[in-house]
Specification:
Elements: E1 8-11, H1 15-28, H2 35-41, H3 50-59, E2 63-67, E3 70-79, H4 90-96, E4 100-101, E5 104-105, E6 111-119, H5 128-139, E7 146-152, H6 156-165, E8 168-174, E9 179-186, H7 187-191
Parallel strand pairs: 6-7
Antiparallel strand pairs: 1-2, 2-3, 3-6, 4-5, 7-9, 8-9
Length: about 200
């Protein structure tokens, strides 16, 4: 494939799209990678299902990058109304309830949760993560002040990629298994071109 071929970014809307997300997710799940691979490539924790992705897509945009007919990257989003859908995320939402951004509790903001982001190893270093997040931001059917998510501190690849994009760390906590950072992307500032 030519290096100048760019992936198409769109919002997932079909079962084929969702199956592509799930296939990429399975390749990068923490349990599918050795510790060395995790350190080099990053990883994802939450495992979604086709019915869950359909429900998420009905409420918020799920951005995907497609190249050669296959999903090579995705950025999921989760509205707060769906906070109970993935029990593995309960500690994250409990921490959100304690977080403050710019001297205001997170609960005072309109926000979207960065549900998970993943870019295939062969397509990294090309700004795709930022483009996927931007696709979600531009496609939101409702106004949001912030995009908030958590990243395992040992997932240095992801922490650095989010920092480069303009996410700011507002909290660090442990759930007894992992240490996490809560990061915020200020969508109002992103829309204005500020970081």
């Amino acid at each position: 494939m030519s290096r100048d071929v760019s992936p198409t970014l769109t919002i997932a809307s079909t079962d084929q799209h969702f199956e592509g997300i799930l296939g990429l997710q399975r390749r990068y799940l923490v349990g599918a990678l050795s510790e060395e691979q995790q350190a080099l490539e990053g990883f994802v924790f939450a495992e979604h299902t086709l019915p869950l992705l359909r429900r998420m897509a009905a409420q918020a945009p799920q951005a995907i990058a497609i190249l050669g007919g296959r999903v090579i990257g995705y950025c999921l989003s989760l509205p707060l109304a769906m906070r109970g859908e993935l029990p593995i995320l309960r500690p994250m939402f409990e921490e959100f309830d304690r977080c403050v951004y710019r001297e205001r509790p997170l609960c005072e903001y309109s926000l979207i949760v960065g549900g998970q982001v993943c870019v295939d190893r062969d397509h990294r270093g090309k700004g795709l993560l930022a483009r996927l997040y931007e696709q979600v931001r531009a496609s939101l059917p409702f106004r949001c002040d912030l995009c908030v998510t958590e990243i395992a501190t040992r997932n240095v690849v992801s922490v650095r990629a989010h920092e480069r994009m303009g996410f700011k760390t507002i909290s660090t906590y442990s759930d007894g298994q992992e240490e996490w950072v809560i990061v915020v992307w200020d969508l109002s500032r992103a829309a204005d071109g500020a970081s």
